[in-house]
Amino acid sequence: MKNLFNLVMIIALFSVVLSCNSSNTKNNKTEKTEAQKSTFDQAIEGSIPVVVDFYADWCKPCQIQGPIIDDLAKELGEQIKVIKVDVDFEKDLATRFGIQSIPTVMIFKENRIIFNEVGVQNTTVLKNALANLGVDIVGKNPEKSSKTENKSSFDIAISGKIPVVVDFYADWCKPCQIQAPIMAELADEMGDRIQVIKIDVDKELELSSRYGIQSIPTIMIFKENQIVFKALGVQSKETLIQAINNL
């Protein structure tokens, strides 16, 4: 009987030890989880605005958006933080924020989403959003200001009275390859009445961003610095001639 009593006591003590160890393990795990927040979560909790670019390497619009955000980071310096999230590798973050289309650009401040837009966002849009958060977007770089004052040949062309037909395209784009000979015929037929400019969106990222090009081919007609015609997809020569004659 005494041996039986001792056995019961040993089992009871062993159960208490197991229970204590289990509780300690659980508490340690909770403390570790709370203490080790990801660098992403730590960044978006701060008072400095965080621009997050959800992208993928294979995404053509993302390749346009990337340099825009890089330039923004260089210009605004320590006033902002930039985080790039590759949705193919950071699937948990992509799911967490409901990313269904890329590029998606979000701006966080103090753990809140202040700005959330899908598609290529140009510099002006992003700067305006950041200005509303107290970021100084004017900048004090004299070299950059001087460069901005020098108009490009494109800006000079579209400011004139002669209509300028602009074809935003890419070499890999099949519909763009259909549009190209149409533009050549248009230029031959209308001669000096118009000017035709072709913009490769993979190389002219700034212009693509400025005019919000998200689909190609995109055809625009400018006159005296104003967009007087804009159409997505392949446009026939007759459609373009009619648009020009209506000016």
Would you give an account of this structure?
The protein is α/β, with parallel strands linked by helices and 247 residues long. It folds into 2 domains: 41-141, 3-Layer(aba) Sandwich (Glutaredoxin); 153-245, Glutaredoxin, CATH 3.40.30. It contains 10 helices and 8 strands. It has a 4-stranded mixed beta sheet with strand order 2-1-3-4. The protein has a 4-stranded mixed beta sheet with strand order 6-5-7-8. The protein is elongated and about 65 Å long.
What labels would you give this structure?
247 residues; Glutaredoxin; 2 domains; 4-stranded mixed β-sheet; 10 helices
Our estimate of the beta-strand percent is 15-25%
Number of domains: 2
The tally of helices reads 10
Rg result: 29 Å
Secondary structure: elements and pairs:
Layout (H helix, E strand, L loop, with lengths): L1 H34 L3 H6 L5 E6 L4 H17 L4 E6 L4 H6 L7 E6 L2 E7 L4 H9 L10 H8 L3 H6 L5 E6 L4 H17 L4 E6 L4 H6 L7 E6 L2 E7 L4 H9 L2
Parallel strand pairs: 1-2, 5-6
Antiparallel strand pairs: 1-3, 3-4, 5-7, 7-8
Compact overview of the structure:
The protein has 10 helices and 8 strands.
